[in-house]
């Protein structure tokens, strides 16, 4: 069996986590690793009775360190990996993929940027998790499609 890392690429609210959640049902009996700092941060927020926004700044470094440690364990075990972050720039993707052994197949799963109205609707549907409009505009403006 070929070990695979699926690097999700898309702006926030483009459907990455929703797609991953649905896909995980197909992997229920298999060993896969979901790299998601958002899941970690949301878990910390839930444990403290706070929102994602409330704990983001104090938790992001811990979330990244934990995910990186778990990633090393997952690659050692030969698990398939779903990397659920924005991964919008070539530099970010290259840095992350450098942590993946050479014998892994690397697959980009690209999520198109939703139309402005739909994107705003999706962003508004996530209470306690806001992204300032200037940050979203910067993400969209700096997006480099994978090659």
Walk me through what this model shows.
The protein is of the alpha/beta class and 147 residues long. 50% of the residues lie in helices and 14% in strands. It has helices at 16-24, 37-48, 52-76, 90-97, 116-124, 133-142; strands at 4-9, 32-35, 80-83, 105-110. A 4-stranded parallel beta sheet has the order 2-3-1-4, covered by helices on one side. The chain is globular.
Indicate the mean pLDDT: 93
Poorly predicted runs are none
Judged by helices, strands and strand pairing, the structural class is: alpha/beta
Give the strand order of the largest sheet, numbering strands 1, 2, ... along the chain. Answer: 2-3-1-4
Describe, in short, the structure shown:
This protein has 147 residues and is an alpha/beta fold.
How would you summarize the topology of this molecule?
Elements: E1 4-9, H1 16-24, E2 32-35, H2 37-48, H3 52-76, E3 80-83, H4 90-97, E4 105-110, H5 116-124, H6 133-142
Helix pairs in contact: 2-3
Keyphrases for this structure?
single chain; 147 residues; alpha/beta; 6 helices
């Amino acid at each position: 069996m070929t070990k695979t890392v699926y690097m999700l690429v898309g702006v926030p609210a483009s459907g990455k986590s929703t797609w991953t959640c649905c896909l995980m049902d197909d992997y229920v009996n298999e060993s896969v690793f979901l790299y998601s700092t958002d899941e970690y941060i949301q878990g910390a927020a839930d444990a403290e009775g706070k929102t994602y926004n409330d704990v983001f700044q104090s938790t992001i470094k811990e979330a990244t360190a934990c995910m990186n440690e778990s990633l090393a364990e997952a690659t050692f075990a030969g698990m398939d990996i779903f990397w659920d972050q924005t991964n919008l720039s070539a530099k970010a993707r290259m840095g992350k993929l450098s942590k993946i052994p050479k014998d892994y197949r690397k697959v980009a799963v690209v999520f198109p940027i939703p139309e402005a109205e739909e994107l705003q609707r999706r962003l508004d549907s996530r209470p306690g998790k806001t992204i300032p409009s200037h940050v979203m505009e910067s993400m969209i403006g700096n997006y480099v499609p994978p090659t």
